[in-house]
Amino acid sequence: MQIDFDSERPIFQQIADGLEDAILSGVFPEGSQIPSITEFSVTYKINPATALKGINLLVDENIVYKKRGLGMFVTEGAAEKLRQKRKESFYENFIKAMVEEAKRLEISREELKAMMERGFEG
Question: Residue 5's closest CA among 37, 42, 44, 56?
Answer without folding.
Answer: 44
